């Protein structure tokens, strides 16, 4: 049997994988970045146990030589909070050494 | 060689296939539908020759028995306009006989 | 700080979210199901710490009234194994009460 | 009303947009490239009027510094054939000037 914090970490991972692979490849420009940020946040917040999602598209890094680019991990930073039966997990994604690293920032067990 | 209206129709098809397969599967609820509509419109409008995209998520049809559902063609209606070297194409998507049918509504040749 | 088994559960969740949202919406028929199963398995096995992915597309359930259907959780069963610094997690996905439930089957701490 | 060749070009565009945005972001390595090529081909061939799809993943270009990379247009070449009520369209995708260009190679009207 998995513990409650382990379940919470599993749920946090699901949200990250979903977020990334649902939206990677979306055409994005500095002008359309705000609506995409908001749609990503609100869509993933629909998922079970997901309390909050915060997405920042790094629009000053977007390659706009063809007017837009495709969203990849290189262009976004994400933080999300999962609450599962009293456990709370904060996780984030940012580039590290050329790779969009997803990581657990904190795991709190139920009181 | 393809004619200018044929190229415009090809471009319209690309936008529809992109729109559908980029966003199918996105978690959506009546609350998050407006931000998703807007993000879909603005992201696809980034693509070359795409003048306008209008997306309506049929939020009264969304299955909310688990709080949200995954976006499919069953839940959206789309109209888009492509302008390519003077040709203009209007195309739309709606359910027809249980299938999300994409179709050309009008094709205008360059004057 | 997260424990090693918690990190392993997070990694297992990432793989599930990625798998589901990358491939949901893919056109599939009984004839093309085997190549899609294999591609899903091999692509997700590329991800860090992912030891094994097993995907079964339930091709007898596919709606083929239009020749093919779009892949959703309704049509697949998945089991995957993650090994992270000596911890091992087995997780699976199957339909439960009309919802594609992802769950932790076992979590083993490092010896 | 659209002509038959225009409809065929629209259908060819749909297949390209679908193919690209369904599979962009998939984790891929030289080892998993062959199964992904086959799955892309067979899934898109399910779509209406699609006669043949040929996908080559340029596995010698894949960035494998993290063991795998995410599929983008930079790493694939595609050719597809659509037959629509006697019209036949051949279309292809390849990199051109840093952009994955989709283009019509030939359009044949019904005899």
From TrEMBL, chains A, B, C, D:
Please verify whether the record's keywords include Lyase.
yes
The protein's superkingdom reads Archaea
Q: Which segments constitute the Dihydroneopterin aldolase MtpD C-terminal domain? A: 5-104
> Which keywords are on file for this protein?
Folate biosynthesis, Lyase
Output the Gene Ontology terms for molecular function.
dihydroneopterin aldolase activity
Signal sequence, renumbered to the chain: none
Which EC class heads this enzyme's classification? lyase
Task: Respond yes or no to whether keyword Lyase is given for this record.
Answer: yes
Q: One GO BP annotation here?
A: tetrahydrofolate biosynthetic process
* This protein's pathway: Cofactor biosynthesis; tetrahydrofolate biosynthesis; 2-amino-4-hydroxy-6-hydroxymethyl-7,8-dihydropteridine diphosphate from 7,8-dihydroneopterin triphosphate: step 3/4
> Which reaction is this enzyme known to catalyze?
7,8-dihydroneopterin = 6-hydroxymethyl-7,8-dihydropterin + glycolaldehyde
Q: What EC number(s) does the entry state?
A: 4.1.2.25
Q: Where does substrate bind?
A: 11, 102
Q: Which Gene3D superfamilies match?
A: 7,8-dihydroneopterin aldolase (MptD)
* Quaternary structure note: Homotetramer.
Protein family per UniProt:
Belongs to the archaeal dihydroneopterin aldolase family.
**Reported function:** Catalyzes the conversion of 7,8-dihydroneopterin (H2Neo) to 6-hydroxymethyl-7,8-dihydropterin (6-HMD).
Q: What is this protein called?
A: Dihydroneopterin aldolase
- Taxonomic classification: Archaea, Methanobacteriati, Methanobacteriota, Stenosarchaea group, Halobacteria
């Amino acid at each position: 049997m998995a513990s409650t914090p382990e379940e919470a970490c599993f749920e946090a991972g699901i949200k990250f994988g979903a977020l990334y692979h649902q939206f990677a490849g979306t055409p994005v420009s500095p002008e359309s970045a705000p609506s995409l940020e908001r749609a990503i946040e609100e869509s993933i917040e629909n998922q079970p146990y997901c309390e909050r999602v915060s997405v920042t598209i790094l629009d000053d890094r977007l390659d706009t030589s063809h007017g837009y680019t495709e969203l990849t991990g290189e262009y976004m930073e994400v933080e999300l909070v999962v609450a599962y039966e009293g456990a709370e997990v904060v996780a984030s994604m940012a580039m590290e050494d050329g790779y969009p690293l997803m990581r657990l920032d904190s795991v709190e067990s139920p009181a």
